[in-house]
Amino acid sequence: MSDNSFFPVKPEIAKTAYVDEAAYARLYEQSINDPEAFWGEQGKRIDWIKPYSKVKDVSYTGDVHIKWFYDGTLNVSANCVDRHLATRGDQTAIIFEGDDPGVSKHITYKELHEQVCRLANVLKKNGVKKGDRVTIYLPMIPEAAYAMLACARVGAIHSIVFGGFSPDSLKDRIVDCDSHFVITSDEGLRGGRKVPLKANADKAVAAAPGVQHVLVVKHTGGNVAWTEGRDLWYHEEIASVSADCPPEEMSAEDPLFILYTSGSTGKPKGVLHTTGGYLVYASMTHQYVFDYKDGEVYWCTADVGWVTGHSYIVYGPLANGATTLMFEGVPTYPDISRFWQVVDKHKVNIFYTAPTAIRSLMREGEGPVKKTSRSSLRILGSVGEPINPEAWLWYYNVVGDGRCPIVDTWWQTETGGILITPLPGAIGQKPGSATKPFFGVKPVVVDNDGKELEGETEGNLCISDSWPGQMRTVFGDHERFVQTYFSTFAGYYFTGDGCRRDADGYYWITGRVDDVINVSGHRMGTAEVESALVAHPKVAEAAVVGYPHDLKGQGIYAYVTLNAGESPTEELRKELVAWVRKEIGPIASPDLIQWSPGLPKTRSGKIMRRILRKIAANEHDSLGDTSTLADPTVVTDLIENRMNNA
Ligand code: ATP
Ligand code: MG
Fold it and tell me: pLDDT tens digits, residue range 28-84?
């Protein structure tokens, strides 16, 4: 792939960055040679009630346990709010940009403090205690951040369920972690449309008898059904309690939150993160990866329903005293320029989004971007999937006007924070590569027998030692934790992703190993073939899977979405096959191409290749867990139009 295009560190960025090339080399080496000393020092970046004396106790074998800073005590909400009051009480903590472009507001750290304390008191008043689970099912409104921090303040464990999930998915997640308290709103707003959150929560709670209270934010003012005694209005409750709530003293290893993974590869797992190590790691990565400087406006477009929203909208930025933007809407409403209008309106300096958003905006051409200024932008980020070089270049040249480095951050719900990424002042970028490991992270590439491969190579991506942000267990199922992550390759954390390491030591994520295709004995990552297809000027998006093939073992089945205005023809089909053959080689030429107006994606925008594999193999009766699909009708359409009707 585009190994040969290289974007060196920009001198003007390196000059002011926290970490330049030399510092990266020095600190990385320290962090690997003496992790206890390195993290023992870094842990001091947050405030401890009782300082830790023990840094790390980890075993990746046997029972598997992971502990960091484990004799220290602290409170996450005190770190994200209270400790900034003296120095930046009047600084904006959160900028809220509504779905409606006419609606926005600024919340200072002082105001944030009052809101969090009041809500924490509401939780206590209604019986929520340390260790209890609270389910949050809210739109992207400031109350979502207040709710997370209020839980952290009283020591309750939050479990956020993305507002786009159905009543059934919500019910499953409430029941799985046995939560008795749900926070929702009357309705959500997305792209001008109302989402009936309270009605969904009512249905979910009807099947989750453990729930005692539903706290409801009045957001749109829409009508809602009401269950007396169970339902509580947020605005009434917070007015009824004091604005003073001392933070609970938590052990570093007390749970902070549970978050279910997005379900790309199977049934979602209840990932459990704890208090001290998570916060150290989230705040440190936020500062260095985005090179966040005091006073800058930082915008991550994720939803708080995903881990990206947890670590890089709320916990990391607020622990660092940053100004973080929360956007309620979608990139295409009221029009396709919305992201860039918001950037101009709030003078955003750092912008962090997903390849799926970039690809969908790219489909519409440069015009909608170029009519905005974007001159405030300094750093761009990408997360969630491999970013195709084509999309990377568009992001860099069109959105960033060639001025802003792109940090392509590879990580997972399980990792709590970013593990492989460029640091903008230290690591030059190659489009499509997540580049190099963050401090303390030791990626290893192993073959299918678990043997570590050296140098330039390709295989299964594992991490050989722990970092503070690592998940501690699957909630209520430690055995599943051990099985899923530590049993495939003994002694390593297995990420489930495949990767290639090039001659410069750069990492290229090739997709999930379950998605690897084996054509006539040649193993191929899906990312590479997809990137070749997307590089064609008429292709907007592509998903590639293997399907049973008599001669080759597996054939290559490509689902292709064309750019706006393009129509599918037999000629174009041939052209695409020839194109891939030229870009990668004959071995990668697609055997079948299905025109797909839409692709099955998770609610977080990731392509669910496991479903596409089933469709390609004509096994559409056993699609597996589809509860996290964004739009189930896409699947019906794909089944009807599948290519190999045999
Ligand atoms: P599930 O684990 O339930 O199947 P999921 O893996 O999609 O869901 P997440 O934890 O949200 O849930 O996503 C992590 C995965 O996303 C990574 O394992 C990787 O496959 C992909 N990913 C994230 N960021 C990047 C990136 N910068 N480059 C390549 N892949 C990425
Ligand atoms: Mg995963």
Answer: 999 999 999 999 999 999 999 999 999 999 999 999 999 999 999 999 999 999 999
d(CA 376, CA 347): 5
Ligand that comes closest to the CA of residue 608: 1
176 and 476 Cβ atoms separated by less than 8 Å: yes
126-159 tens-digit pLDDT: 999 999 999 999 999 999 999 999 999 999 999 9
**pLDDT tens figures, 362-421:** 989 999 999 999 999 999 999 999 999 999 999 999 999 999 999 999 999 999 999 999
pLDDT of the residue at 516: 86
Q: Provide the H-helix boundaries in 220-354.
A: 234-239, 276-289, 307-309, 316-319, 338-346
Distance 413 CA to ligand 2 centre (A): 7
Ligand 1 cavity residues, CB under 6 Å: 261-265, 268, 382-386, 408-413, 434, 495-497, 509, 512, 604, 606
Q: Is the ipTM of this complex over 0.90?
A: yes
Q: How far is CA 302 from the centre of its chain?
A: 7
Residue 266 alpha carbon to ligand 2 centre in Å: 9
Can you tell me the distance from the alpha carbon of 117 to that of 153, in angstroms, rounded to the nearest whole number? 8
Helix, strand, coil % over all residues of the chain, rounded to 5: 35, 25, 45
Number of the ligand closest to the Cα of 381: 1
Positive or negative, the Cα torsion across 535, 539, 543, 549? negative
3-state secondary structure at position 58: strand
* 359 is an annotated ligand-binding site residue: no
Ligand 1 atom closest to Cα of residue 308: 11
Q: What is the pTM of this model?
A: 0.94
